[in-house]
Amino acid sequence: MKVNGKHYRSLWWVESRGELEIIDQRWLPHDFRIEALTTMQDYADAIVEMRVRGAPLIGATAAYGMALAMAQDPSDANMDKSWDFLDRTRPTAINLRWALNRCREALRPVAEGNRADVALKLAHEIADEDVDICHSIGQHGLALIREIAAKKPVGEPVRILTHCNAGWLATVDWGTATSPMYQAFDAGIPLHVWVDETRPRNQGALTSWELGSHGIPHKYIVDNAGGHLMQHGLVDLVIVGTDRTTRRGDVCNKIGTYLKALAAHDNGVPFYVALPSPTIDWTVDDGVAEIPIEERDAFEVTHVQGLNADGKISTVQVSPNGTQGGNPAFDVTPNRLVTGLITERGVCAATPEGLAALFPEMAKVSG
Ligand SMILES: CSC[C@@H](O)[C@@H](O)C(=O)COP(=O)(O)O
């Protein structure tokens, strides 16, 4: 997507230096900083500290991490050690393990001398595939938005609420939840997006920055506003992303998503989840019982970062001295609250049958 008129992906390979560059998302939307990842520790830190974030982007970054590991030492022992090292960075988004497994399975039969090249090619492949997948998600989501627009008086915007940042910054390009918005807007459908702030990390500010760069009308709202807006008929549909979707269609996403789904259900507002197939965990059925929820540092809750009056990025304390914070980073929305799943192969019901019909080969393997 474009930043000041220039096209960026959220990560890219610099051939001349043999390095991966990323956008350090900790400073957005106030400062656009690019950073090179040159050591395995850099890769792990980038994921843990959320310089790169969002399930698909974490997966693509990990694939490049495996490529670096193979360039340093292509042995089986180092491959397994690097798999563990990167897998430990964040527990909830399944795309991380999906990418690591895909790399390890592809590299195992390759002669050590060829592993570095094959691993880098695979990382490029995973990144490119993500772009294509997200574009297709956008096409299928566009059809849904078009249907809603057709029932409205000409010129009235389709009002979409979204939570967190499932935008191009969270993927390699396009985003998942935002891809239908970009494509609908480009197709001339009037839109208005309600952007949840998404405390504590305020990923909504990233979404606002993205939508603003694309010219899409939107308002940045506090997380607690969604229910009120839905009660007053001001939301036509909700589209969110996901970090892990179970084989029966339970959806794990950024903390607060579940509350939005409850409010949508109570008010008859369609609640859609956009996801690339690598986000489906075919080994898990019951998301509430089985998905590990990342507990992050309480500092993210007790403190908040923003621009101060001097225009400098600074951090201030919100809670009283000594208050303990709690910071579960994700929650699970049971499939009964999900109207549909927007995937690269089409839209399906959030049920085992719905997912199996779109991805029969995966459903079969997982039994
Ligand atoms: C296309 S991204 C989908 C999800 O990864 C996104 O909604 C989300 O919850 C991101 O969480 P984050 O903690 O910012 O990595």
UniProtKB/TrEMBL annotation:
Keyword Cell cycle annotated: no
GO molecular function: S-methyl-5-thioribose-1-phosphate isomerase activity
Annotated site residue numbers, Transition state stabilizer: C164
Active-site feature positions: D243 (proton donor)
Enzyme class (EC, first level): isomerase
Residue runs in coiled coils: none
Reaction equations catalysed: 5-(methylsulfanyl)-alpha-D-ribose 1-phosphate = 5-(methylsulfanyl)-D-ribulose 1-phosphate
Pathway(s) per entry: Amino-acid biosynthesis; L-methionine biosynthesis via salvage pathway; L-methionine from S-methyl-5-thio-alpha-D-ribose 1-phosphate: step 1/6
A Pfam family annotated for this UniProt entry: IF-2B
GO biological process: L-methionine salvage from methylthioadenosine
UniProt KW keywords: Amino-acid biosynthesis, Isomerase, Methionine biosynthesis
Binding site for substrate: R53, G54, A55, R90, Q203, N253, K254
Protein EC: 5.3.1.23
Function: Catalyzes the interconversion of methylthioribose-1-phosphate (MTR-1-P) into methylthioribulose-1-phosphate (MTRu-1-P).
Family the entry assigns: Belongs to the EIF-2B alpha/beta/delta subunits family. MtnA subfamily.
Protein name: Methylthioribose-1-phosphate isomerase
